[in-house]
Amino acid sequence: MFDFLRSEDSKLRRSAAQWLEMAQRIHDFRKDLLTAEQGGALLAAMAEVKALVKQKAGVASLKPAIERLEGSMRACGGRLYPTTSLAENVEFFLVAAIVILGLRAYFVQPFKIPTNSMWPSYYGMTSEVFTPGEEPGVLGKAARLVGLGAINYTLKAPAEGEVLVPVFRSGMPAYTERPGRSLFIFPTLMREYTVMVGGQLVKLTVPADWARSEFGYDDVLEKTLFSGRKNGLMQAAQSANGSNQLESSMMEITSGGRRIDARVYWVPTGRKVGRGDEILSFDILTGDLLFVDRMSYNFVRPVVGSGFVFKTDNINHESMKDAAGRQISQYYVKRLVGIPGDQLEIREPVLYRNGRPIEGSDAFKHNAERDGLYRGYFNGSSHLRVGEVLDVSKGSYFAMGDNSSNSADSRVWGFVPEMDVVGRPLFIYYPLTKRWGVAK
Q1: Domain 290-438 sits in which CATH superfamily?
Q2: Matching CATH topology for 3-80 and 290-438?
Q3: 300-310: b (≥16 Cβ within 10 Å) or e
């Protein structure tokens, strides 16, 4: 900052120190490749500059010595000399990346909540439906994108007519899967849905994780096309099918990595639109982003009631296999409800630990009382079935989602091996909602 106050001699001595630092690096990195003559010349030139700097020599003596040192560096430096600003920046970012990876591996790791199994404690991707004319404007969408991670999806009618929705034989909305990108960068799985108006098809592509959640595509259809009626699409399909009114066709779909021809049934929704009218308009809001403490569980035992992050690498269950039968390697977040030696039981809506209503988290109390958005605990299909008292085995943990009615957890796939425990949620840093702050 105050270089203008320095003398020319002082500035050159500081420059000389930088040249010496670079010369030392060249010598250290390339000394095994240098000839005796090159190494000797470099060391001699370095010694000359060091002596002059120590003597506080002036420009007249120091400048020629620096030039001789530079000549020796050029003769010895190879690809290390001259060092450009680009190379220095690359080195800086590599060091920074190593530090960040070290922090991520051993201390704090960023994590995105993938599903709504922990709702309403932590949110996965959810949606907000707009009626025609209520959609936010350009500035509103930009603000929602920045603050909430909200991305808008609007489907408009290509023609006039009634909106028809294709479903599989099960009554589930028909879809096909394809690869895509999250935030235009990260590979992810997408689902493509279709509706028909006036004989013309309209397609909608959304993240698969959102589409299969309880706040996903089915929920948007119910709120938009079926006046909020739960299972409105399935009821409409059953009603039309009972009257032999459903038309069907074959659709080529991709699911689980396989391409097949599936029969779909076109369900009339009763919703009639004009050309250019909105069929659907909604935002998908990002799941909670939080920091995970990876260090604590190296020194202390996990505590019942805490948020619980673990890997799926060694959970042996068919639901932990992909379409090819390979083990899924992912990070899950649930709540720890049982440690080795505990006895667990569910008497809906209360979860019992060692014969008493479980304690250790507000979520336990809220679920037991079905308070607010909490729906209570429900018996499992494989573990904690009705009337079952389960013993948590040695070296294992039992984890459950706060959203018990919509959580695939230890009730389905069993215990979490102790070796796969990662850490506990620390802080929700995004989106900027009332949940921002210390993780519950």
Answers
A1: Umud Fragment, subunit A (2.10.109.10)
A2: no
A3: eebebbbbbbb
